[in-house]
Amino acid sequence: MSAFTPLAGSTAADSWPMARVMAGMSAMPVGHAVDLAFFFPTARSRHESLIAETRRHLGGCFTAIETALRVALDQSPEVAEALLHCPGPLCWPTICQQPTLLSPALLAHMQLRAAVSLMLRQFGQADAEYGEAAADGSPAEDPALVDAFAILALAEGRWMALGGEDQAMRPDVPADYFAEMVWTTSACLAAAARRGAPGRADRMLAAFERAGNRLIADHDGNCSPLVAAERLVRQMGGSADASDPLGAGLSGRRFLPFAALAARRQWLTIIQVIDILVMAPLTQLGALCRALGGSDADYRQLLLALRPVRPWLTDSFVIAEAERYQGVSEDEADAIIDALRTPASFRAKLDHLIGVMAA
User: Fold this and answer.
1) For residue 220, how many other CB atoms are within 10 A of its CB?
2) Which stretch, 5-9, 195-199, 354-358, has highest mean pLDDT?
3) CA distance linking residue 270 with residue 103, whole number of Å
4) Kind and range of the H or E element at 352?
5) Would the CA dihedral through 254, 256, 262, 265 be positive or negative?
6) Residue 139: beta bridge partners?
7) Is the pLDDT of residue 1 over 60?
8) Rounded to the nearest 5°, which phi and psi values hold at 133?
9) Which partner from 31, 237, 263, 333 sits 20 to 30 angstroms from 140, CA to CA?
């Protein structure tokens, strides 16, 4: 088995050249490729719950950014007047009509957020009961640790909340994604303003730039549950290193603390671990479980727990995969995880060269 396994999920989408190359290597018409994907789905085919949840995160975050941007633009009467003819949410409907406004990386990140939301509803969140015990089972007397659990629970609650696509959702995304979303929203509003006041279109661009820069400067990317989970594990200190991530996560049914503990143990980011759990090929998932010291029973339990985001994991498939897992050695698993620690762009270039040379 090659240690350089294919890129998956947000890891692949983080490399724009790789996405373009993969799209351009096929001479198949796009429409025909889409039809084939629907009629002959692969094991990683998207399911309706993940699609709906991804659209909820996208629509909710864009709606919140649009609301904030409109407030900032009120300081420019010229722009505010031009936008009077389109008072309702404008950005998300525009993106639905022009989905190419979304970059592959942003869409992949939102899909990852959506998968986390589905897992939290099924798997549980870091509540007070879980926070009353440290990883080694002793009472957690550190008030900062208790506060960290409370902050994580509140952040998880935002992602677990139900709502429509046009219901505002806090855009607690990393700074680079937030900037992209701000300028996408600005472009949608600027296009509407041009229609409302075509003679003043160019003069209004500076107002959009100022408003967008203010939003970006005020953005706090450290309030997402992913960051809160990593912060919690750091505050656990030595007890986090002494804990059993699989045992604590699976028995306590706490998805994000488990992912953060696994990331700390394997020197990965929590984004990488979550991507492996919910999107990556099962070879990577099995390697992560084996590298964490997971037994055959642990792997079966992990597969069953991931059904909300991997609905194709039927009982027969889980049994067959568990049999395959028995042949995964620790050295083989460590080699796969070591490869995943290398920069994503490096792996993308290497995978491209390997594919080209083999063709």
Assistant:
1) 11
2) 354-358
3) 22
4) helix 344-358
5) negative
6) 133
7) no
8) -125, 140
9) 263
In this structure, of 12-21, 235-244, 302-311, 315-324, the range with the lowest mean pLDDT score is 12-21
CB 61 within 8 A of CB 171: yes
Q: Would you list the DSSP string of 44-107?
A: T---HHHHHHHHHHHHHHHHHHHHHHHHHHTT-HHHHHHTTT--S--HHHHHHH-GGGS-HHHH
16, two tokens: 């724009």
Contact 322, 300 (CB under 8 A): yes
Look up residue 166 and give its two tokens: 């046009």
The two structure tokens encoding residue 133? 């015990």
Q: Residues 271, 10: contact at Cβ < 8 Å? A: yes
Contact 6, 351 (CB under 8 A): yes
Strand, helix or coil for residue 255: helix
| Distances 37 to 184, 191, 281 between C-alpha atoms, Å | 29, 34, 18
Look at residue 187 in the predicted model and tell me its pLDDT: 95
pLDDT for position 358: 76
Look-up of token digits 């296009």: 191
Q: How distant, in Å, are the alpha carbons of 60, 116, 159, 212 from that of 190?
A: 20, 33, 30, 12
CB atoms within 10 A of CB 210: 13
Distance CA 172, CA 169 (A): 9
**Residue with the two structure tokens 């990393």:** 174
Task: Give the list of residues 6+ apart from residue 97 with CB closer than 8 angstroms, or none.
Answer: none
Overall size of the chain counted in residues: 359
Lowest mean pLDDT among 18-22, 118-122, 318-322, 325-329: 18-22
Distance CA 94, CA 89 (A): 9
CA 227 and chain centroid, separation: 12
DSSP secondary structure, 132-192, as one string: TB-TTSSB---HHHHHHHHHHHHHHHHHH----TTS-------HHHHHHHHHHHHHHHHHH
pLDDT tens across 213-254, in order? 999 999 998 899 999 999 998 888 777 666 666 666 665 668
Furthest-apart CA atoms within the chain: distance in Å: 70
Give the contacts of 129 (CB within 8 A, at least 6 positions apart).
none
